[in-house]
Amino acid sequence: MNNFSRIHNIRIKFDRLLNKRFFDSYKMDKKISEPAYCPSCHAVYLNGRWQWKDKPREAKNIICSACHRKKDNYPAGTLLIKGSFLGDHIEQIINTIHNEEHRESSEHPMNKIINESYEENIITVDTTDIHLPVRIGKALKKSFGGKLKINYAENENRVHVNWNR
Hints:
By secondary structure, the protein is α+β, with helices and mostly antiparallel strands. It has helices at residues 3-20, 65-72, 85-107, 131-144, and strands at residues 36-37, 44-46, 49-51, 60-61, 77-82, 113-119, 122-127, 147-152, 159-164.
């Protein structure tokens, strides 16, 4: 292997490594001193993660990244639900959305809905993370059928999920 080939192969590996990493301004760039408490959602940062616990007396107040995203209205995930099926099943679909959010956020306090909007035959759900819209989309597909499409944004921590029927 000549030097050009060796350098080219190293460059390809380096490019792949860079593409797998993405910048997320809402991730803490340094470790949070423990214990910490989010006064917005009441989650506690302890043992290296956010969790639902009683506030320790010595906890410092810090806004968690999910509440920061919510305040800025800057979602990491968006779920778009479309189709004439919504008209007759809106209540069941909304219940599915909220049930999945409750299940997800009970274990992962950083996974929350930022907002929901309703238009004729369209529901948009914005979330603080990339896992919740995927989970909701899969639950909708399992319960009601339809088509599910998941698109992860390249080079950033963002997902767009579409479900329609």
